[in-house]
From TrEMBL:
Keyword Plastid: no
GO biological-process terms attached to the record: 'de novo' CTP biosynthetic process; UDP biosynthetic process
Known pathway: Pyrimidine metabolism; CTP biosynthesis via de novo pathway; UDP from UMP (UMPK route): step 1/1
GO molecular function terms attached to this record: ATP binding; UMP kinase activity
Subcellular location(s) of the protein: Cytoplasm
HAMAP family with a match to the protein in the record: PyrH_B (MF_01220_B)
Functional note: Catalyzes the reversible phosphorylation of UMP to UDP.
Oxidoreductase among keywords: no
InterPro entries xrefs: AceGlu_kinase-like_sf, Asp/Glu/Uridylate_kinase, Uridylate_kinase, Uridylate_kinase_bac
Protein species of origin: Balneicella halophila
Protein name per UniProt: Uridylate kinase
Length: 234
């Protein structure tokens, strides 16, 4: 395996599968199987999941809430997805541990980097729920933060597109894919695959990012093995 330790960011929206909302049991099972496979190969794994399939804070004002309340609801949405993944991994026979950014016992223990690293070194898949624990952020930024804290080899953004394009491929069918790209090129072109706070955090702390299509079974194993199936940012 090319990468011995990873921070995997999973898209909440992708977890919804074809239904576009909620959690699709087949999608969840596919993610769990892929994660179990690389865990069995000795890869240390931490996971952050988004909450876009349930709630996003940015939509709060339209729904009649203030932004901070909306973001709190968004962070709780990530906890729901994290509980689901943790339960599914256990079902698959893959030992996992749910840690939370804010106090939430008995749902999960409070996150601390040292604690997370200890579990990871013992072969447990660590799921870090609740984003950063602060409003006005996203789970992309939470992923970048945890990747820095845990000093993993790479931050993997597993999503429903197969890499970074020169424009949003879900809107422009003629968009061209990059195999490699620099952080600065992402700023210069204003590419929106990840938010700028997350990109900056990775740039400043020298965290490599790989963006790939997690919805095709087997892709996680390929990316961790170093196959060039997505886009690498460095
Ligand atoms: N230049 C680009 N290259 C690739 N994808 C892009 C680009 N610009 C925008 N995107 C969009 O970014 C999305 C990937 O982001 P992400 O995985 O964070 O999805 P999300 O719906 O925001 O997930 P979450 O629920 O975790 O917030 C893709 O679905 C794609 O449409
Ligand atoms: O650190 C964080 C992370 C997330 N939020 C809120 O949660 C939702 C869902 O996260 P996504 O990354 O969009 O999937 C997000 O829209 C924020 O409202 C947060 O406040 N702080």
């Amino acid at each position: 395996m090319k990468y011995k330790s990873i921070l995997l960011k999973l898209s909440g929206e992708s977890l919804a599968g074809a239904n576009k909302a909620g959690i699709d049991p087949e999608q969840l099972a596919s993610y769990a199987k892929q994660i179990k496979k690389i865990s069995e190969k000795g890869v240390e794994i931490a996971i952050v999941i988004g909450g876009g399939n349930i709630f996003r804070g940015l939509k709060a004002s339209a729904a009649g809430f203030d932004r901070v309340s909306g973001d709190s609801m968004g962070m709780l949405a990530t906890v729901i997805n994290s509980i689901a993944l943790c339960a599914r991994l256990e079902e698959e026979g893959c030992s996992s541990k749910l840690l939370t950014a804010t106090k939430m016992a008995p749902i999960g223990e409070l996150y601390r980097a040292k604690k997370a690293k200890k579990f990871m070194s013992k072969g447990k898949v660590v799921i870090i729920a609740g984003g950063t624990g602060n409003p006005f952020f996203t789970t992309d930024t939470a992923s970048a933060l945890r990747a820095c804290e845990l000093q993993v080899d790479v931050m993997l953004k597993g999503t429903r597109v197969d890499g970074i394009y020169d424009s949003d491929p879900e809107k422009n069918p003629d968009a061209k894919k990059f195999e490699n790209i620099s952080y600065d090129e992402i700023y210069k072109r204003g590419l929106k695959v990840m938010d700028m706070t997350a990109t900056t955090m990775c740039k400043e702390n020298d965290v490599k990012i790989a963006v790939f299509d997690m919805d095709t079974e087997g892709n996680l194993g390929k990316v961790v093995a170093g196959e060039a199936i997505g886009t690498v940012v460095s």
